[in-house]
Amino acid sequence: MSTLTLTLNGRPCTGDATPRTSLADFLRETELLTGTHVGCEHGVCGACTVVMDGQPVRACITLAHSCSGRDVRSIEGLATDDVMAQLRAAFTAEHALQCGYCTPGMLVTARDIVTRLPDADSERVRLELAGNLCRCTGYGGIVRAIMRVLETRRGVQAAIPPRLPAATFARRKRDEGVIPMTAPMAEGATGGNTPNRMRQVLRIGVPASAVWDAVRDPELVVGCVPGARLLSREGNQLRGEMTASLGPIQASFQGEATVRYATDAMRGALTCQGRDQASGTRLSGQADFTVVPDGNEASRVEIDMHYALRGPLAQLGRGPVVQVFANEIARTVGLNLQARLRNEEAPPPPARLGAGRLLLTIIWRALRRLVSWGHDT
Amino acid sequence: MKPVDFAFDQPATLAQASTMLATEGARAMGGGQSLGPMLNFRVARPARIVALHGLAECQGVEDAGDALTLGASTPHAAIEDGRTPDLPGGILSRIAANIAYRAVRTRGTMGGSLCHADPGADWLCTLGALGALVLTWTPRGGRMVPLSGFVTGAFRTVLQPGEIVQAIRIPRPGADFGWGYVKACRKPGEFAHAMCAVLLDPTHGVRRMVIGATGGPPVVLEGDRADPAAVEGALKGAGLGPVERRMQAVIAGRAMEQAMQAHRGTRA
């Protein structure tokens, strides 16, 4: 908890907030200004929109501490604002609210529209309202109310903040970074991956029989998956965890899997389900795998997967990103498996899969959670 | 949801910020409009957040004739409003105006968007097509990295711990250039399902097409390969299904058409 000072609704305000407190929670729970509503909490619904330094911002994805020294106005602070008075009257006249949940954010956005875009037509108003969701009144009345105020203000100068200052930025040594990827990347044989379905073909320079033996050893296979650990094994029931990071995104899945083998055909199937405790993301899937000889000295592991990702990670990760990430993991698994079977040193894990103390911390936290879990069951 | 707990720093200089960012588990935050949702969803759980909005060294604009250089902290809204210099035809303003929503554009920054490296981000795709360079800062000096080499994958860049993007340098295209940018969204402001930017700049011998909204870094097609007919093939391995690849090809066709028209317009 630390102190922040800002100007709130025209008055100096000093309050305490933890670093993770959003401006919306600070307004509602510390300052008891409950006119700011919290809807989606990820910047899409617009219910929490307030004014900072004269411009609309999302209070749910603005940290309270980043408003230090700034001028913030919530809906309460706009009570005596002339434009807002016009908008309130117009919202009443046009029946632009019903349940009222979206209304504070709607009004703040409406005020931005009429002051910044005095020439806007109703089509433009609708476009600007794309960032404020109303799910009961409908937009007809809201658009008419905003148009009503715009009509009374025609000819008023648009309120645009000042131009950015001039600066100089020294030139520096050019570095090409990574080589741009213009050629198609490697992919499963068909190249026809569809959402939630994936085909992976791992080419391994080891005879098929040796690969098949390895594939039936879950400990060995799990050891080849970056960030994965086998926690327990009873017959064909496995319990494990896997941590992965992708830029700022982290996930630590714990779950169970069942694996079955058909030795004659060198074929098997693995079904699994897991959960990322912190975000509540759930992952379930099935992988059918076949080991196919490729001459005497090499083989292919063909894997057909389908999976379902539900919860926050699915919302943010987006299908194509998950597919490419899974491809990267599979490639690493293939290289690790080959190295193990050839008794070679495993290749260093690609940096992009994430590693380091942060991950260890996450694993440690996850383990501690698992222990307390165990007591419950 | 609410974010997990983290430490929060608001340094005043690049040197301070760099030291803070070099610590384990630290994450830089520009306007926080992409990281904020990830924090609230708890899919990002950094130990420490270093907010860069207070760095005067990342603010302001330089208009040097052959290139525009925008400070990394330049908010999308300032570009949208024409409060910064622009390329001919208001290209940058039009791109900015269609990023998310106004209340997000007032906080979200160009540098933050590039560093976040979301494959669906508008600047990543368009500035890549414009041949922009990222100017980074470290205590030992910085580098200029072309955007085509800046992103290593979805949400990942070549930035080293403690390395900070200070500005973005956008070269001015030649007089008879053509520009096209089209994205496919079902709702204005949402992440695009397909996007393509095309730059035809005969003065500098550039014919470039960049496709975004893939599963990895933007896909760059140069010269003869910058052809809508080549798009579906070029997107193998980008995590897209056949329908999405087809959509990308159609959008690329429209972007190319826009660019050709603009190019013809400047010559007429």
UniProtKB/TrEMBL annotation, chain A:
Zinc in keyword set: no
Pfam families: COXG, Fer2, Fer2_2
Keywords: 2Fe-2S, Iron, Iron-sulfur, Metal-binding, Oxidoreductase
Coiled-coil stretches: none
Enzyme class, spelled out: oxidoreductase
GO terms for MF: 2 iron, 2 sulfur cluster binding; caffeine oxidase activity; metal ion binding
InterPro entries named in the record: 2Fe-2S-bd, 2Fe-2S-bd_dom_sf, 2Fe-2S_ferredoxin-like_sf, 2Fe-2S_ferredoxin-type, 2Fe2S_fd_BS, Beta-grasp_dom_sf, CO_DH_gsu, Diverse_Oxidoreductases
Keyword presence, Oxidoreductase: yes
Superkingdom of origin: Bacteria
Record PANTHER family: OXIDOREDUCTASE WITH IRON-SULFUR SUBUNIT, XANTHINE DEHYDROGENASE IRON-SULFUR-BINDING SUBUNIT XDHC-RELATED
Protein name per the record: Caffeine dehydrogenase subunit gamma
Provenance organism: Komagataeibacter saccharivorans
